[in-house]
Amino acid sequence: MKNEETRTNVIVKTGRDHYRTTITANGHTLIADEPENLGGKNEGIDPESLLLASLGSCTTITLRMYADRKKWPLESVKIELNMEVVQSDNQQTTFIKKHMHFEGPLTDDQKTRLVHIADLCPLHKMLNNPIVITTNVL
């Protein structure tokens, strides 16, 4: 690996309380859990929804930054995300759909450009490229 710099440090911890998980990052804490029908207590967001939330928040932040830089009249962005996992004999393919809603007096050209910019958010690019995950025990 050429760049061993760690950009994000997240600590995830679970105990004996099925399946409640505490996530700590940059001084903030979130709770993840599984729904009751999967043995959890539904005390937090499930892991798949956290992934979608990360992508959605990265996208909205990217769009906000772009619109502010361009001084466009974007009042708000709302993104609805859903995910479907399709299994085949040789692989698993995950389909994520982002449905975006823009508020504000934007032109059609501005909306088209924002759709293009949405696909350039860092997490979108990361998820569209190979990801290598290593696991070890400390």
User: Could you name the ranges where pLDDT drops below 50 across 5 or more consecutive residues?
Assistant: none
Series of secondary-structure elements, N-terminal to C-terminal: EEEHEEHH
Content of β-strand:
25-35%
Largest β sheet strand count, sense and barrel closure: 3 strands, antiparallel
Report the oligomer: single chain
Rg (CA only): 18 Å
Helical fraction equals 25-40%
Number of helices: 3
Strand tally, please?
A: 5
Order of strands side by side in the largest beta sheet? Answer: 1-2-3
Distance between the termini: 20 Å
Mean pLDDT score, rounded?
Answer: 93
Shape: globular
Class from helix and strand fractions: alpha+beta
What does this protein look like?
The protein is an alpha+beta fold and 138 residues long. Helices cover 30% and strands 28% of the residues. The protein contains 3 helices and 5 strands. The chain has helices at 47-70, 108-118, 122-127, and strands spanning 10-14, 21-25, 28-32, 76-87, 92-103. The chain has a 3-stranded antiparallel β-sheet, with no helix packed on it. A two-stranded antiparallel sheet has the order 4-5. A hairpin with a 2-residue loop joins β2 (21-25) and β3 (28-32). The radius of gyration is 18 Å and the shape is globular. The two termini are 20 Å apart. The model has no long low-confidence stretch (mean pLDDT 93).
